[in-house]
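Narrative of accomplishments. A recurring question from our advisory board has been how the design workflow behaves on a single, concrete structure rather than in aggregate. To address it, we present the structure tokens for one chain from the evaluation set, followed by the sequence designed for it. No filtering or post-editing was applied between the two.
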């Protein structure tokens, strides 16, 4: 396990990258494959399929629990938290074609305005050219969305969505500046605040398979941090 703390943007937002995280990748992929086919969750902006993991999925939930145990020192150290609670965990696969993306799915997004809402993204497949990128909204200068600036970010994003191309964002464009990126290497875990603007890096030739052994498979965990 090789950890690295990066800082991105003018905000110097922490992003933790841990390579060789589980050293047990085939077994985790087996867990995901056993839970296929994944559903499309109504009302979710994720451009693909997600299988939520909870206590009823004993083996998969044990993986989630172990992931959080191993990641706990990095969560506490990078984000100055004393403890955290699991909000949601899932296996996820991007399957939506660029032409079928909604306007909101074509641009960077945020998960929460809460600075203690932390995302853990575990890359489980070998899909070259993929990863996660972080962005600044050019018109407002917003990198980190909070309660004070969320209305400005959303209004600008809605205005600009009318002219966004039907494609996954891939690097800097006229509306967003890329301020950092993490390659999606197998068994790499990435931790970042959910209020940091981000988007998946999805190359045009990436297979949009719904098979966990073929497509872009990740585990997506979200926790709410606590202090004191």
């Amino acid at each position: 396990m090789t950890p690295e703390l990066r800082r991105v943007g003018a905000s110097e937002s922490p992003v933790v990258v841990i390579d060789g995280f589980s050293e047990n990748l085939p077994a985790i992929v087996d867990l995901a494959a056993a839970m296929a086919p994944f559903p499309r969750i109504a009302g979710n902006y994720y451009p693909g399929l997600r299988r939520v993991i909870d206590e009823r999925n004993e083996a998969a939930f044990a993986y989630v629990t172990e992931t959080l145990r191993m990641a706990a020192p990095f969560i506490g150290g990078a984000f100055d938290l004393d403890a955290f609670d699991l909000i949601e965990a899932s296996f996820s696969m991007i399957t939506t074609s660029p032409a079928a993306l909604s306007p909101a799915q074509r641009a960077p997004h945020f998960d929460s305005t809460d600075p203690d809402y932390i995302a853990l993204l575990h890359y489980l497949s070998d899909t070259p050219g993929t990863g996660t990128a972080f962005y600044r909204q050019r018109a407002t200068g917003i990198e980190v969305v909070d309660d004070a600036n969320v209305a400005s970010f959303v209004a600008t994003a809605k205005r600009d969505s009318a002219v966004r191309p039907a494609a996954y964002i891939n690097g800097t464009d006229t509306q967003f500046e890329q301020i950092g990126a993490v390659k999606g290497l197998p068994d790499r875990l990435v931790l970042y605040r959910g209020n940091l603007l981000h988007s998946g890096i999805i190359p045009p030739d990436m297979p949009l398979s719904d098979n966990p052994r073929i497509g872009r498979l990740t585990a997506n965990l979200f926790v709410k941090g606590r202090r004191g």
